[in-house]
Amino acid sequence: MKVLVLNCGSSSAKFQVLEMDDESLLAKGIVEKIGSSNAILSYKPTGKPDFKRVEEILDHRRAVERVLTVLSDPEIGVIKDKAEISSVGHRVVHGGERFAESTVIDEEVIHKIVICSEIAPLHNPHNLRGILACRDLLPNIPQVAVFDTAFHQTMPPVAYIYGLPYVLYVRHQIRRYGFHGTSHYYVAHQAAEIIGRPLNELRIITAHLGNGASIAAVKYGKSIDTSMGFTPLEGLVMGTRCGDIDPAIIPFIVEKEQLSVDGSNLMMQKHSGLLGISGVSSDLREVLKARAEGNKRADLAVNIYSYRIRKYIGAYAAAMGGLDAIVFTGGVGENSDVIRELSCQGLEFCGVILDPDANAAAATCISTGPVAVLVIPTNEELVIARESKRLVPAV
């Protein structure tokens, strides 16, 4: 069976087609700059020439329509007809407390995703546009929603309830939800396979480090805590997000800088993190380059970034009562030996001993101590495809 995986953002639509009989990748690509006359469709079919075109794509429906066209193109396509698609799996960022697992999409599910959009206004509405486009263009093909928050629904109340009046949780569901759940789930399972022990016997810390970044404590196969909270703003220092700060800073800045509520939110979301500290870039590669050239603020940004990771690792080792493995994944986690090294410094007391040569080579296992430190490429699309196959088995 063939599954189309779709991940729609505000102006983009990433896609993959997988043959689930052997879990092989048939094609992948992205539509960028949706809503403009110079949108970019990039398409990479396995075993065939790559395709790239700049054209007018004004909305997500048109983007999905163009994706289906190239997928079924006689020369570069990987399917003869869109009817070959057995199901469409969608990444949906926020499922709130309504969704603790993936689900087949129907009108009720769509309605609940809309409700969750109130607490995920930057993500869910765009995810929903992809769902509605597929409903129009693939009316007889089942769709599945896979939620970033679902994996973290096993957190206990002591981890997800904030120190606010409890009535705010009751009325508005203000609590820690966590994100990147699909990635944390995948690499935790991969880690167990690599270590050669059952997941339900392991205490694993998974670090998904990219422009957005989060850490999860996975105890015996279940997420018991994670760094992102009510929104993806909480937790680690990220590319442009501030992560953990004293909330009293916000009204202080609003008064001193004459910012609106929206302005202060924009500052925390888009102008903070690595970019705000270094003054160089939100791209860690550029910050590391500036650091190597002697830029002191870039050095400070890198040290703060890695210190926050190290602090969470220590906290989650304590929360789980021990530690068997740490997993680095995501664009930064998989590719930056500097961040991995700095993030593990000083953790020898809990069994974390890095192998410098293995770390520099980005080997799968980069440690020599009792705690396995692993570098595992994430594959959220494969998880979404597997969930789609599970919920919509081939007829």
SSE map:
Blueprint lengths: L1 E7 L3 E8 L4 E9 L3 E10 L5 E7 L2 H12 L13 E8 L10 E2 L2 H10 L7 H14 L5 E5 L9 H4 L5 H7 L8 H15 L7 E7 L3 E7 L2 E5 L22 H9 L3 H10 L2 H6 L5 H9 L3 H25 L4 E5 H6 L1 H8 L11 H5 L11 E4 L4 H12 L4
Parallel strand pairs: 1-6, 6-8, 9-12, 12-13
Antiparallel strand pairs: 1-2, 2-3, 3-4, 4-5, 7-8, 9-10, 10-11
Helix pairs in contact: 1-3, 2-3, 10-11, 11-13
Task: Characterise the protein shown here.
The protein has 2 domains: 2-147, Nucleotidyltransferase, domain 5, CATH 3.30.420; 197-375, ATPase, nucleotide binding domain (Nucleotidyltransferase, domain 5, 2-Layer Sandwich). Helix 10 crosses helix 11 (296-320) and helix 11 (296-320) crosses helix 13. It is of the alpha/beta class. 38% of the residues lie in helices and 21% in strands.
Specify the helix fraction band: 25-40%
Give me the CATH fold name of the largest domain. Answer: Nucleotidyltransferase, domain 5
Number of self-contained structural domains? 2
* Class by SSE composition: alpha/beta
Alpha-carbon distance between the two ends: 9 Å
Instruction: Please tell me the CATH architecture of the largest domain by its name.
Output: 2-Layer Sandwich
Please list the strands of the largest sheet in the order they lie side by side: 5-4-3-2-1-6-8-7
Number of helices: 15
Main pleated sheet: 8 strands, mixed
- Our Rg estimate from Cα atoms comes to 21 Å
List low-pLDDT spans: none
